[in-house]
Amino acid sequence: MARFRSLRVKANWTVLLIVAHFSYLLIGATIFQILEREAESNNRNHFQMEKLNFLSNYTCLDGQALEKFVKVILDAWEKGVNPSGNSTNPSNWDFSSSFFFAGTVVTTIGYGNLSPSTVSGQVFCVFYALCGIPLNLVFLKQLGKCLTIHLSRLERGMFSVVPHKQTVEGLAVSLFFITGSLVFLVIPPLLFSYVEGWTLGEGFYFSFITLSTIGFGDYVVGTDPGKEYISLYRSLAGIWIIFALAWLALVLNLGARIMELVIGLTHPGFKKQEEEEDEKVSPSKLED
């Protein structure tokens, strides 16, 4: 009877998660549609008006010739060539930019503003990602362990001052979160905003979209042809991504532990069922 009750609690929790997940997606889709659809329509109408004005000012061109030129511009953009400026624009495949691109491949960010255009480059990218993504996951896991060790040392050091364990854990996690937020989520957006000429909101937006590995590609560092960047600018941005992802993974892990603790307190049957399953698995592992 107790086992049936625990299974029922677990099934109910699974159903609740499914409903919550798809409800969240539906709510997001509705809100994005409300916020962005009208702006897209306005932008499309504005672009069409600009084309008509261009044709009226340059009567030597016809609509077909203009559409062909627009297609050339779109093809250049899809191949990573910025259509503004001239042929003296900085290369997208110098070492710093290539290092940044390699980082976006193994972290699965994939901004989409740059991709290999040669067959050999595309083939290499496939095999590079196949090996690099697992390596990056192992690397991030190891970095997370190192950060956890430092967090434990911080807790031990604070415990000598504050003898209450729960208070120390809360203070240590808070200090770790605040310090990491400053180093990875506050200072970098400020620097990106200054270098790229973005607003602070745009800098924070880029940082979050990057570290969450969403990578829309609407904002990417080091791509403005009108600016002169230091040679290691994009390489440093790639290093920031790697270490910030490790910190963010640890924060998400701590958040998951807190959620499990809350679930254990609110649904004791679910926690008990997990403990029983762990006890059943342990003997089987010892026998193997």
Key structural traits:
mainly alpha, 8 helices, globular, 288 residues, 77% helix
What does this structure look like?
This protein has eight helices and no strands. The protein is mostly helical. Helices cover 77% and strands 0% of the residues.
Task: Summarize the topology.
Layout: H1 2-57, H2 63-78, H3 95-106, H4 119-159, H5 165-196, H6 200-211, H7 233-266, H8 268-287
Helix pairs in contact: 1-8, 3-7, 4-5, 4-7, 5-6, 5-7, 7-8
Task: Summarize the model shown.
The chain has 288 residues and is an all-alpha fold.
The fraction of residues assigned to DSSP E strands is under 5%
Q: Roughly how much helix do the residues carry, as a percent range?
A: over 70%
Number of strands: 0
Query: What general outline do the C-alpha atoms trace?
Result: globular
Distance between the termini: 31 Å
Query: Overall pLDDT, averaged?
Result: 79
Poorly predicted parts: none
Class based on secondary structure composition and strand pairing: mainly alpha
* Main sheet record: none
N-to-C series of helices and strands: HHHHHHHH
Task: Output the number of helix runs.
Answer: 8
Report Rg: 26 Å
